Every structure is written in structure tokens, then in C-alpha cells.
Amino acid sequence: MQPYKTQLRVRYHEMDALGHVNNAVYQHYLEQAAIEHSEHLGLNLERYRELGGWFVMRRVELDYLRPAIAGDILEVTTWLQEMRGTRAIRRYEIRKQGSDDLLLKAEALWVWVDAIAMRPRAIPDVLIAAFGQLAPAAKE
To answer: What is the pLDDT of residues 24-73, one digit of tens each?
Structure first.
């Protein structure tokens, strides 16, 4: 699977007292990139409802490497490293647009959850097929 890339502009209200993006805001950026990636593949919330579930972020690990500030255009790259059973491991990298310098790298564990029981269940084959061959393609 080729990595998915999206851009976003850092907003002023996302700053902390030090004048850069608050660490907690980065998780929103990661979630937004994952949603856009799914939608890019035709997997919107309505499709997930038809399949009887959705992905829920269970764990996230972030490595903050460099700060971003208001007005920066960030490029968020995401890809699925693995999908097996109930779990999907998604990787992320964030850079300033036009730069090779890594600002953040992250790994998140997403779990497919049954919409009614709210319990983990096996990821449907149709989703595994939609995300295609899983292969990391990050630049470090």
C-alpha cells in the first residue's frame, strides 16, 4: 500500500504557551489523516456503518522531534503497516511542506469495533482488500 499524504495548516488556537503546536493537538492531526485515507479509498462513515463497525484508536505512541508553529503547512503521511484479526497498526510522519525534516513520527493501534456490541471483532475482508497490500514506505 502506498502511503497517503494530506496537508493541513496549523491554526493559532493550536499553540501552547511556548508558541508551538500543543502536543495533544498532534493526535487530532493523526486521526484526521486516517479518516481522509479511508475516505480516499471509498471507506466513509456510512460504509463503515454498513459493515457494522468502525475503527477506534486504542493506543498511540508519538515521538516529537521538532516544533511546528501557527501558519505552517504540514504534510501528514500515513500508511498501514499491518492488519490482522481485530487490529490495524498505522504509522505516521509529519513534516513541514517542502522539507525533509521530520517533525513527528507516530504509531497507532486501531481496533475494529462492532457497532452494536462495542466489542472488538475481526476486521472484515472487504476492508483488508480495500487497503491493499501493506508495505511500509517511510523515509526516516
So the answer is: 999 999 999 999 999 999 999 999 999 999 999 999 999 999 999 999 99
- Does residue 115 belong to any structural domain of this protein? yes
- CA distances 19 to 15, 64, 92, 138, Å, are 5, 15, 23, 29
The answer to the question of residue 36 being in a domain is yes
> Under a CB-based contact definition with an 8 Å cutoff, are residues 58 and 111 in contact?
yes
CATH number of domain containing 12: 3.10.129.10
Residues 6 or more apart whose CB falls under 8 angstroms from that of 58 comprise 87, 109, 110, 111
Domain coverage including residue 78: 4-131
Residue 103 lies in a domain: yes
* pLDDT beyond 80 at 18: yes
> What's CA 109's distance to the chain center, in Å?
10
**Residue 33 covered by a domain:** yes
Residues 6+ apart with CB under 8 A from 75: 5, 6, 7, 94, 95, 96, 97
Quick check: 135 pLDDT over 70?
A: no
The kind and range of the H/E element at 37 are: helix 25-40
